[in-house]
Structure formats: C-alpha cells, structure tokens
User: Fold these one by one.
Assistant:
Number 1:
Amino acid sequence: MALSGPEVEKQVPAEPRPGRKLQSWWSLVFCLCFYGFMAQMRPGESFITPYLLGPDKNFTQKQVTNEITPVLSYSYLAVLVPIFLLTDYLRYKPVLLLQGLSYVSVWLLLLFGSSVLHMQFMEFFFSITMAARIAYSSYIFSLVPSACYQRMAGYSRASVLLGVFTSSVLGQLLVTMGRVPFSTLNYISLAFLTFSLVLTLFLKRPERSLFFNRGAPVSAGASPSELDRMNLGQGQPTGGKLGRLPASWRDSVLAYMLRELGRTTRLPQLRLWSLWWVFNSAGYYLIVYYVHILWNVVNPTTDTTRVYNGGADAASTLLGAITSFAAGFVKIRWALWAELIIAVVTVLQAGLVFLMYRTSSIWLCYLAFVLFRGSYQFLVPIATFQIASSLSQELRALVFGVNTFLATVLKTIITLVVSDKRGLGLPVRSQGRRQPPPPARELTSPMQEPDAQDGLAPEDGVRAMGEQRQQPEAKA
C-alpha cells in the first residue's frame, strides 16, 4: 500500500548537504558527462563512406546505398523498443555497456570485415548504439534531485555536442593537415571507443528508474509522479519491480496510460508538435544517413586530403548547438504562431534539400547541409518543451517514445520503398542531372592514402554516414 504522511517523510532523504554526499553525486555527474564526451570521440566517423568505397574495402556505390545503409533503418526499428524497455528495467548501466561493446564491434567490422554481410552486421551494431542513447540521456536524472534536472540535462547534452564537435575537427585536421589515411583514423576511433567502454565500468548503477524500479525513495522536493498518483488513488503498492505486482494493477495502469495517451491526441498543440516530430525527424535522419554518399557523388575526388566531411560535420554540430541554445530564449505566443513558424522552417529545409540535390558545387552542398541541420536543431528544443510542458514525467516519456517509434517506422518504410534493392533501389541522386567527370588534374593526382572512413549518426546526435570521397564507380 502506498505510504503517506509521516511514513513517507521518514523515507525521504534530506536535500544533499555540502560535504561528502554533495561531492559524491557531483562526481557521478562529472563521470557521466566525461563518458558522454569520450563516447563521441570517433574521428573516423565522418569518413566511413569514402573508406567503404575506396580501395581498402572496394564496395560499389550501389552496394553501399542499396544494400548496406538500409540495414541501419531496419535494425534500428527492431531494437528500439526492446532497448527502451531494457534501459529502464536494467537501470541504465548494463545498456551503456552494451552500447560500448556495440561501438567497438562497429569499428572492428569496419577494419577487418570484407564482405557486404560484414558491413550489414556493422550497421546492425550501429543501430544498437543509436537506440542505447536513451540510457545516457535518462541516466543523469536518476542521480540528481529534481530541482537540478534542467541544469544537468544541459550539462549532459553539452558534453555530447562538444564531443561530436571535437571529434569532427580532429578527424578533419588529421586528414587534411596530417595526411592520415582513413584506415589509421579508424584505428584511432577504435582506441577512443575502447577507452570509453572501460569508463562505463566505473559508472554507478542507480537503484531506481522510471517504470520498473520504483522502490527507492524519490529525492526531496520531487513532485508525485503520474504513477504515484494513480497508485495512491487505487491503494496499490508503488515499490518493487513491475513484473512482481498483481496483474490487475498492471492492467489498470496500462489502461490508464493508454487512455491518457489518447487524450493527448485531442490537444491541438501536442498533436501539431508530435506530427512535426514524426515527419520532420524521419526526413532529417534519412538526410543524415545518405548525405555523405551524396557528397561523394558531387565530388568524387581521389585526393583524400581534399575531403572536408569532418569540417562540415563540425560546422553543422556547432550551428546546431547555437540554434538549440538560442531557441531557449525565443519568446513567442506559440499557440498563435506555431503553425507559421513550422511552415517557414519546413519550407526552408525543403529548399536546402533541393539545393543539395541540384548543385554541382561541393561547397554549396556542405553549406546547405549545415543550414539544414541547424534549422532542425532550432525547432527540436521548442517541440520538446511544447510536448513536455503539459504532461507528467511518465506520459512525457511515453509520448516521446511513441513519436520516436512512429518516426522510425516511417523512415523504415521510405527506406524499403526507395532505397533498398528489394524496392526501387534508387541511387542517392537518381533524378539529378548527370555530374560532369572530375577535372583531369583530380583524376591524375596521386592518392595520399586510399583509405576512407565513415560517419555515425549525430545527437543529437545522429549517425552521419561516411565522407564523400569515393572512387568513381566506373573505376570500381
């Protein structure tokens, strides 16, 4: 039975006082943020596509576009829900370990795999790393009092963005100025990821989580959660694992949550921003997955020192961080202007995608992608706030989970119909005009080191696949 009054007060710990306890959870936050930074240190990420298309792996553009990359969408859809549930049930740390092992597996397959099947397994393990990001983003809320949530969320996100930016800049400098081959860049990435895997062993496993492990008392000052309020109304226990509670309790809670989820669809603002989230994020991640292949089509040079994918990824990450930060200070009557703002930003994004499709200039293609990513990141925190502001913590997690799942389903359907060889199997630029061949001096310039590397999805993260340096297909 739910406790109340003096019994609850006895169990609720006091706010952390200056001293050992305060230092303890601050050190946990620092360790988690440091891990978040190091897990993004993958300087070879922006150059994976050229690596796959270059002499080291010698895959064709058709294989990369229509056989290898589509596996990422399918496997992400398959692992998203199980990993979401395991994250809460296993209390974060085991899923972070799984993420670290999957990252190492990705780069081992990149370095030592030689077949299309190996690269498809690489995409599968990468999908696990993407799905497991929920463990990192939600872990920090189990460590700190609720009054610190907003500040700590900023710290954890900043550490990830800083890691992506630093990694992209480092990769670009090593390629352009250090003339480091793509294969060496992959070995450097593997070393960083192995170190981040070791770091996860030192993270503390929390005693509570959102749904399955609610036995530990909540921090002082935390407001009752939706599940707590339901339990108080029904006189059912709140502690222990969900799986051990009576079926009638589980059924009633699930029914209540589903009813509440249905109610949210009748709220105009929630419906508007949720639809934006589903459709825009599906398009965004498809662009991120395939843009490095497009870059290689626009600029199929064999001179690896003139591949600037890392610089483009770094610039887009920096602009995304700036626009995300600026969005927090925008004061607009969203109930009145939301539709117009969404329409303007969406039209801008469509224009930038069309520019990437039509242009034969790699620099315009880079610029369009940077602006496209920045405009998306501008609306993400606004959508997050608009969706979250009127929901309880559990319903908030449920709505975001459903939105992400629907976006993944949409993205997978588009991939199957348009990109997969079992569907239309279209090339990345199927309706664009044929690009002129590279200048003669590029064709005859000596190759610095015919390695190429790939890129993973950013934050926002997101997986930005590959650099645009590929061998011309006729040559392959």
Number 2:
Amino acid sequence: MWRGMRQLLTTRTAQQTRCLSTPAIVANMPPCDFVPAKYTGMSNEQMSKIRAENINPACGLFYKKPVYLQQGHMQYLYDTDGNRYLDLIAGIATVIAGHCHPKVNKVVKRQMDRLWHTSNIYYHPAMHEYAEKLVAKFPDPLKVVFFTNSGSEANDLGLFMARLYTGCMDTMVLRGGYHGGSPTTMGMTALGSWYYNYPSATSIHKIRNADPYGGMWGGKACRDSLVQPDRDCSCQPGKCEASERYLEEVNDVLTFCSPENKMGLFAHESIQGNSGAVQFPKGFIKEAYAAVRAKGGVCLADEVQTGFGRTGEHYWGFQGTDAVPDIVSMAKGIGNGFPLAAVVTTKEIASVMRRSRHFNTFGGNPLASTVGSAVLDVIDEEKLQENAQEVGSFILLELAKLRDEFEIVGDVRGKGLMLGLQLVADKKTRKALPTEDCLDIFEDLKDMRVLTALGGHRTNVLRVKPPMCITKADGEYAVACFKKAFQNHLDRKASRL
C-alpha cells in the first residue's frame, strides 16, 4: 500500500503530473484562539535535503507538496508558515487527548524534574499507580499488565505468551489485519504491501477476512454500525448469515491445519485500522473465540487503534463484540503520542513468563507511566469517549450522505472516531478508484487544511481517526471539505473527456 504510494509519487515527472491548483477553502475552519509560536528553526529546504540524504527511505512521504509541521494544539496542527490544519488522523489514531494537552504536559514536566528513568526492577510509584489504574479499565480476569514501547512489541509479546501457554505454535489471523512491522509481527500482519522478502509467518494461518462490504458475504444487516453496507443480504434479526459463512473457514483451519487437534492463538483487531475501519459481521468474533477455545487456544484482541474510547460506545473495541479476550495489546492512544504500549492478560497466562527472564529497558519508565496515567484521567474528566460517540456518529451520518451523492464513495463505515470512506470506480462491482485519483483527493484535502490518511489493500480508503477532542463544528468543516474534494475529482474527470 504505502510502498506503492511512494513509488507513484516519486516516479511522476513534471510532464506526467497535471498541476493541481489549491482548492478554495469551502467553509471557514472553526475559530481557535491559540496562536502558534513564530517559527525560527531549520528551513523547509534544509529539512527536505536531510530527509533525502540522511533519513532511512522507509520514512516515506505521501503528499506531492509536503507539509512541514512545527507545532500542535489539541485537534489542530500548524506548519512552519503558521497555517492551521484540522488533524483527522492524529498520528494514525495516536494523539487521542489532543496535541500538547495542557494537563498531560504539566504532569510530564513535573515528573521530569523528579525522575526520568529507572528500570522496572525497582519500585517507583509512577509505574505502580498507572498499572492499577489501567487494569481497572478491564473486566475480570484481565488484570496483569506488562509495559512495552510500541504496538509491534506488544503484539510480539502477546504471541509469545500465547504460544508458551498453549504449547502450540499455530496462530490464526484475518487477512487485512495489521499487527506490526517487526520481523515476528510482520508474520501476523496480512497486508501484502507491508511485507518484505523475509521469513516471518511460521505456523501463522491467514484466513479470509470477514468483511461485510468487500468480502464474499455480507450486506445491509451485518455490521454493528449506524451505517450499513449498500449490499443486499438474506440475514434475519439475530442471525447473520455472513457471520456463519466466514466462520466456516475458521472451522476449516481448525480441522485441517491445526496439529494434534490444537490451536495456539487467534489474533484480530477489534476494527481493522490499516485496512480502513473494516468491521466484522455481528457475532463473528464471539463465535470464533468459542471455536478456538474449544481447541485449547487463546484469543488476542489488538486494541492498538480502537482502544481508550475511540469507538465511542465502549472503552475497548472488543466490548462491542460481546466477547472477552484472553490477551489485549494496546499502544498509540495509550500515550497520546509518547512511546508507550502494553499487554494485559490473565494471571494464569502471565505466569509463563516466570520460566525464564524477560526484560524491557523502558517498559514502565517513570515518564511513560506518568503520561499514560494522565491520559486516562483526561479521557474520563473531559468525557472524550462520550465525545467520540457523539461527534463521530454525527460525522459518520454526514459522510453517509456523501455516499448517496457521489458514485465514487462506495462505503462509509466505523464507530465513534474510527471511520473510513472507501473510494470506488464503480459502486456495483466495488472496483477500487485508481490510486492516482485517490492521491489527488488526498492532496486536495491537505490543501484545504484537512489532514487524513489513505488505507486499504488498494490504497482507496480515506481514514478518519482524529484526536477525540474534535468538535461538531470541526466535523462540519471536514465533511464540507470532503464534498469539495469529491467534486474536484468529478471536475477533473470531466475535463479529461
């Protein structure tokens, strides 16, 4: 996905690329009293030179005209020229409380004057206070936490514990899932654009994705969302036929691919993030858990993008499935941008780590723990979960109107502030809109000061995962910009005829 985008952006020549004029701002961005500092640092040209010569090329850019950011405030970002942007992607669903949130900043500065770092072999209050506060957010028996620094590390550890606990290497994941980019978690990830030619998928079964819009089965009654796929289905109330059909493959893998009638782990995102807010049919996760546990396996819910109230309805995405996992991985929003992650599991599963030594130098670091604790407080005190439900539902329903208006919007989906718009060339066939057209829309939105991201296997899903402090007025502005960007696409298409 991103690899293809980078290649397309870097291979366009001046003759191949049609110059796009900056779209007019379609409405006034909501007012903000914050005034960014005047930028006096390195020039944009010097940053570009260093990026080209000294930064690993894996750190790609996805705009034809780059954005040079220098400051953030809550749901807004500011570039080196002082232009304000509405951040609809939040560092890929990471800045959950808002950029440079004053309460988080305050407690971090206080902790910095006391103790920056000591390893977790010592007792220090920040880690223990945070651990107690975090596990209180989970239902029994999920009450033991191990702190790491990234989602890839968290999923790596979750997989490791599951295999030790069950004694079975075999692992089942869904195609379209993203669980990390480390050599091990790359094997759990099932998006080809994130692979390298490197052995990583030992004993990992990547089964058909249970996608009610893009998959073989699913339709208007299958998804736990205010907006359903525009596909007919024969599901009845309380009985999802699509779920039953996708479960057939789960059971096939358990029957034909698991050794000695055993399965080690079933891992899934509660809503698939990099695939573009893909949701599963009602009942699928709960029944998959039951089937895997009947084979002695355990279940891991990847809450890296869905956790901490982002789905609005619940604090954790898995709570919308009526199923409780055995292991939960989390990162991104947990630290509001600070490198922090965690794995929460049961005492029984966690006990396998006593068999040898396992250590993470920065896991439970005093600064990280202080940040994490402050983020939990802000989510509760400022009712960010409730705001995600209210504002996210508003945005979702407004985006659904654009689906009805524009042929290129094939699907609008998600919950809370975990949303996706799938762009298509044809609604009936669901064929993806060409990548170059998606990139032009993506660029238009940026030029209208709206930052989002592209996802999906074919890079044709606009991802909406803003800081959870976003307002309804911000949502109205964003929807107006989406509408203008889609109209711009139609105008460009007409001009080529």
